[in-house]
Design a protein that fits this description.
The protein is α+β, with helices and mostly antiparallel strands and 242 residues long. It has helices spanning 5-11, 26-36, 56-65, 70-73, 88-103, 113-130, 136-148, 160-184, 197-203, 235-238, and strands spanning 48-53, 77-83, 188-192, 211-219.
């Protein structure tokens, strides 16, 4: 039976041991991954891919690359969240094509001010933000933006590593949405960062520009899969109202 959002939040835990006798429906996992694409994404660039592993053989190899931790070894299926910052040109073109399908094909001078802004955002601003050459352009942009920032507010995350962080944040938002979606369905997950990312990249034959964000194991919990009571820092320590 599906859970409410509040129930799913309370139910979701990082499960360390799954029940091998209780399989999960791969179609449900796929549905939750599709839902996760609705998560917020910086500039709607969606610079991620999801590798849904249902093969027992590949799961076994992937568990090895997750250091054979119980959350990986006992999982029914696993999902690898991959950051694809290197696909920024394709994603920008896809956004532009979508906008033109909404605005309609017409001469450039017939676009409204709002439509021109949206098209220029993906045609000019995104290339300026994501374009780089071995990190050199990024540092040059950083210096220029820093100087402009002396006089007015300006976007400062211009270096390659800054944009890398942006892409990982968007992938993590999608990963969190996926895990909440799985909890709604009564399925369990465990996000894992203790991994050999290089071997995982080779396992899936990923290009050099791809990065592993996290591996998420999936299954149905055993009681001992929850390692103890949930602890959170008191809300008053993390909540600041100005």
């Amino acid at each position: 039976m599906s859970k409410t959002f509040e129930e799913a939040l309370q139910y979701r835990r990082a499960i360390r041991t799954y029940d091998a006798e209780k399989p999960i429906d791969s179609n449900v996992v796929k549905k939750c991954l599709e839902q996760s694409t609705l998560a917020p994404s910086s500039s709607n660039m969606q610079l991620y891919e999801f590798y849904h592993v249902t093969s027992k053989e590949i799961n076994k190899k992937l568990a090895e690359y997750c250091f054979d931790q119980s959350a990986a070894k006992t999982a029914q299926e696993m999902v690898v969240i991959v950051v694809r910052k290197d696909l920024w040109k394709q994603r920008a073109k896809a956004n532009t094509a979508f906008l033109k399908s909404i605005f309609g094909e017409k001469p450039a001078e017939q676009y409204s001010k709002r439509e021109k802004f949206a098209l220029n955002y993906y045609g000019k601003l995104i290339p300026l933000t994501y374009g780089d050459f071995h990190g050199i352009l990024g540092y040059l942009k950083y210096v220029i933006y820093w100087m402009i920032g002396l006089f007015r507010p300006i976007y400062r995350e211009a270096r390659s590593n800054d944009i890398r962080v942006v892409a990982h944040k968007s992938a993590a938002l999608a990963a969190q949405t996926f895990m909440i979606g799985m909890a709604v369905e009564g399925y369990d997950t465990c996000p894992m960062e203790g991994i050999d990312s290089l071997r995982i990249k080779k396992l899936f034959n990923l290009p050099s520009g791809a990065e592993i964000n996290m591996v998420i194991s999936c299954g149905i919990r055993k009681p001992e899969g929850v390692t103890g009571p949930r602890f959170r820092i008191p809300f008053k320590e993390v909540y600041k109202q100005w």
